[in-house]
């Protein structure tokens, strides 16, 4: 079995060599070098023209390939959209201040501070009469302590407060 496989491999290799030789004979004619300087220059010009033509063809094929791959990507995206099966990634909750968000969006150019309390006006409360009365009365704990015990009850009966 190994011998038959080895002979098959040899036959395939020989067939490939024969195919290669036939292709080269068909597409690449034998090269004959010109003897004079002028003929050599003309030969070089012909070679340069062929090289330029091959480069143009290669460039055109590359552009076509890029175009078709882009179309394939667009069509596959449309197909995916039409199916409607979207997999949502698990989202994490991120705590970020407004300044940090603006810095992330705008980059390091962001200099504006989003401290909302800094722009508020300072407002002074006007003293009302009730507040003055409450301040005059004093702390409620003192009033309770004064009324507690026997002295406080005595004051209440004697006509104190």
UniProtKB/TrEMBL annotation:
Region of interest (Disordered), residue spans: 1-20
GO CC annotations, alphabetized: nucleus; troponin complex
Keywords: Acetylation, Actin-binding, Muscle protein
Gene3D superfamilies tied to this protein: 1.20.5.350, 6.10.250.180
Segments of skewed composition (Basic and acidic residues): 8-20
A Pfam cross-reference name: Troponin
Domain of life of the source: Eukaryota
InterPro entries: Troponin, Troponin_I, Troponin_sf
Keyword Glycosyltransferase set for record: no
Molecular function GO labels: actin binding; troponin T binding
Subunit structure and binding partners: Binds to actin and tropomyosin.
Biological role: Troponin I is the inhibitory subunit of troponin, the thin filament regulatory complex which confers calcium-sensitivity to striated muscle actomyosin ATPase activity.
Record-given protein name: Troponin I, fast skeletal muscle
Upper taxonomic lineage: Eukaryota, Metazoa, Chordata, Craniata, Vertebrata
């Amino acid at each position: 079995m190994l011998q038959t496989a080895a002979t098959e491999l040899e036959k395939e290799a020989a067939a490939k060599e024969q195919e290669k030789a036939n292709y080269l004979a068909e597409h690449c004619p034998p090269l004959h070098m010109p003897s004079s300087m002028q003929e050599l220059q003309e030969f070089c010009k012909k070679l340069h023209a062929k090289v330029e033509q091959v480069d143009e063809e290669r460039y055109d094929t590359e552009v076509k390939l890029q175009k078709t791959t882009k179309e394939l990507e667009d069509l596959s995206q449309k197909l995916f959209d039409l199916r409607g099966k979207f997999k949502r990634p698990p989202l994490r909750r991120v705590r970020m201040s407004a300044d940090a968000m603006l810095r992330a969006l705008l980059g390091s150019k962001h200099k504006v501070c989003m401290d909302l309390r800094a722009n508020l006006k300072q407002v002074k409360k006007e003293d009302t009469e009730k507040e003055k009365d409450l301040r005059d009365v004093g702390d409620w704990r003192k009033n309770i302590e004064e009324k507690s015990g026997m002295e406080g009850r005595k004051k209440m009966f004697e006509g104190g407060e």
